[in-house]
Amino acid sequence: MGDNTEFELRGVNHLALVCSDMQQTVDFYSGVLGMPLIKTIELPMGWGQHFFFDCGGGNALAFFWFPDAPDAVPGISAPKNLPDRGELLSAVGSMNHIALDVAPDKIEEYRDKLIAKGVDVGVLLNHDDSEFGIAPAMQEGVFVRSIYFKDPDGILVEFAAWTRELGLPEDVRHEPRTAADRTA
């Protein structure tokens, strides 16, 4: 992958999300996904809690619990459903999904394991550069394979497995769209 010539970044320290029920979040991320709970914080003045989970590679996934947080709005704060079920849209400034890196040879096993744990998991997607971005089977053009599922608060989670190194000239070939291109 490309080198950053401006800052020596070492990856994502943590991504902080908001949950409705911290116990339910701990049960899912530690109990179902096996991510160790590595730090808990009780925020001052009754503001809530902030818990951190190890998601591998020296990175963490964190959650805030606020007693007065507004409810999520599916289709705005996160997609309404899984991408293979026709949903991908979320609002500007929202976090669409979190993708956790997994080994390519484990993706099918991990899908089966999640299903066995009672998690509603989408189909295995082979992302490529075809018109619809999905190949029916693993082939040379596939750059990442993934599965999607939701946490108890409807946060979209992806297990993603890179199948090749990115950064080739053909990987960066689209002109960025602007606010003027939006239809909303």
TrEMBL record:
Residues 11-162 form the VOC domain. InterPro entries: Glyas_Bleomycin-R_OHBP_Dase, Glyas_Fos-R_dOase_dom, GlyoxalaseI/FosfomycinResist, VOC_core. Pfam families: Glyoxalase (PF00903). This is Glyoxalase. It comes from Streptosporangium minutum.
